[in-house]
């Protein structure tokens, strides 16, 4: 849960909200085939909830009032991976900052698989 204060008081946003927001933004970028599982915890969630769950391949944390986003993606074969990653970082940063008003400190994108 991400908490911050504004002139009206305390605002709390859940991790699921950020995961859905980031996942939708990254998934809409050209060249992204799917989000990838980011570790054993995502693998277990996949077995319990099915192949698609909101925070699949997404981890959002707060560092000194700014967000740190970690993404794990699958890319379509034959595309320039650097261009796809650059597109994702720009889109995710814009969408998150526009929707929440919070600043993004960094976005780490890991390409875990290439899909034909």
Q: What layout of secondary structure does this protein have?
A:
Elements: E1 2-6, E2 9-13, H1 15-27, E3 32-35, H2 40-49, E4 58-63, E5 66-76, H3 81-100, E6 104-115
Parallel strand pairs: 5-6
Antiparallel strand pairs: 1-2, 3-5, 4-5
Helix pairs in contact: 1-3
Folded structure, characterized:
- By secondary structure, the chain is an alpha+beta fold.
- The mean pLDDT is 84.
- The strands form two sheets. Strands 3, 4, 5 and 6 form a four-stranded mixed β-sheet that branches. Strands 1-2 form a two-stranded antiparallel sheet.
- The longest helix has 20 residues, at 81-100.
- The chain has three helices and six strands; from the N terminus they run ββαβαββαβ.
- The termini are far apart.
- α1 crosses α3 (81-100).
